[in-house]
Design brief:
Length: 249
């Protein structure tokens, strides 16, 4: 198996993974979304809430805020305390949340929580818990998906190849030695214009051993850490299964 980074922008990364199969790629995707621990607000002590929003509504908003997570300091089940205490008139933002651990903070600072009028107050003590997406979606560390790498099969002359290259709306095709190569397979959306321009000489197919893996973290941990922890979770499950097999007589 080989892994190559083909795109990175902010929280999003795309990897070209070759020499594997769809079963392993899907296992990595599921492990990344279900078995990688991060921090999320879970328990609330609402001492005061004069706003127009119900306690439960505010709690749901707080729970879905991604938190910066130090994987070296926190293990599944660990907790960290946070506080939200503000007076109106103002719009309470996610940046107003204070953490007792300076290494833990809200990722997105510009999320509105509630609007307070003159004389209204809000005072909430919170506990963020380290857990996984298997428990609830708020503990999912990232969006992750994959697709098979597209390729063009068949040979075509140089004169006809020009029409095929021009037909691609994203201009990601390249002509080499009588073949059309998809230079950026992660950008291809299978529109089929290349097939039509090839007049039956080209066929758009999907590889069964090469994949584009797309990961977009919510900011709590890095994309690389998401994938590393997913691989470690899969390895641990395999070890557990192997240990159980040894017990069978």
């Amino acid at each position: 198996m080989k892994v190559k980074k083909v795109f990175e922008d902010g929280n999003e990364v795309r990897l070209l993974v070759t020499g594997t199969n769809i079963k392993l790629i899907n296992a990595i995707r599921r492990a990344a979304m279900s078995d990688v621990p991060v921090l999320a607000i879970e328990d609330l002590s609402i001492h005061k809430n004069d706003s127009v929003l119900f306690d439960e509504y505010i709690g749901a908003r707080l729970g879905l805020l991604p938190l910066k997570t130090d994987l070296k300091s926190y293990k599944p089940g660990d907790r960290v305390k946070l506080v939200l205490k503000e007076k109106g008139p103002k719009t309470v933002m996610s940046s107003d949340i204070r953490s007792l651990d300076p290494n833990v903070e809200v990722v997105c600072k510009n999320v509105p929580i509630v609007k307070l009028k003159e004389g209204q107050e809000i005072f909430i003590e919170m506990e963020a818990v380290m857990s996984t997406g298997r428990e609830h979606a708020k503990w999912q560390p990232a969006l992750i998906a994959y697709n098979e790498v597209p390729k063009l099969e068949g040979k075509i002359g140089e004169k006809s190849a020009k029409a095929v290259l021009q037909a691609c709306p994203k201009k990601i095709l390249e002509y080499k030695a009588g073949k059309i190569i998809i230079d950026r397979p992660d950008e291809c959306d299978l529109c089929g214009n290349c097939e039509e321009a090839g007049h039956g000489k080209l066929k758009l197919a999907l590889s069964n051993s090469s994949f584009i893996l797309r990961v977009e973290t919510y900011g709590g941990i890095s994309n690389l850490d998401v994938l590393k922890k997913a691989a470690e979770a899969l390895e641990e499950k395999c070890k557990e299964f192997e240990a159980e097999l040894k017990k069978i007589k």
